[in-house]
Design goal:
- With about 180 residues, this protein is an all-alpha fold.
- The protein is about 75% helix and about 0% strand.
- The protein contains ten helices and no strands.
- It is globular and about 60 Å long.
Length: about 180
């Protein structure tokens, strides 16, 4: 791509509009220091291939980031990182809000279900549910047809629902007791 003023302006707009979303996608799959490097490399590739990028650009950018992540991590590490991040987002205040017992049971069931899912299912669900991509756009990220993506999404949702329904009950002395003890003080 030429180094024209139009190219610079287009790239700046592309970067400004998509940087945070690409970083959000990568941070759920890699350690923060690695995530920054992958996002930077994604945008270096975007600059080099600016003429190849069609609107909306986000699916293309996420596809590049996804390929870079595949080179960086094995699937087990990415799945553990996602579960760790979800777990880290929950604070003690979350546990005493609403009905503590219901909240903890739902959270533990969801974490157990997520932790047992395949990397492929987690990716399909997160592209649509977390990153807000339409199935047509998400299909571009994973490199399949829209019809194939709909099938994968349907199956992933069904497996998630089944995993949540079959998740083991939380330990009786788990965070509920800690939160209740804290609230009683």
């Amino acid at each position: 791509m030429g180094d024209s003023e139009d190219s610079r302006r287009r790239f700046t707009e592309l970067y400004d509009e998509n940087y945070r979303r690409v970083l959000g996608y990568v941070v759920t799959r890699a350690e923060p220091d690695v995530a920054e490097d992958i996002v930077s490399e994604t945008f270096v590739i975007a600059w080099r291939r600016l003429d190849d990028i069609r609107e909306p650009a986000l699916p293309w950018l996420l596809g590049v980031a996804r390929n870079l992540l595949r080179k960086q991590w094995d699937s087990g590490s990415r799945r553990r990182a996602l579960v760790d991040r979800v777990t880290a987002m929950t604070t003690d205040e979350d546990l005493v809000a609403w009905d503590v017992a219901d909240h903890v049971v739902e959270r533990d069931s969801a974490l157990a279900a997520i932790g047992g899912m395949s990397e492929s299912d987690l990716e399909v669900l997160s592209l649509v549910m977390w990153h807000g991509l339409a199935p047509r756009e998400a299909a571009k990220v994973v490199g399949c047809s829209t019809a194939a993506f709909f099938v994968r999404l349907h199956r992933a949702r069904r497996r998630l629902a089944r995993a949540i329904d079959n998740a083991p009950a939380p330990d009786a002395r788990h965070p509920v007791s800690r939160a209740a003890d804290k609230a009683a003080r």
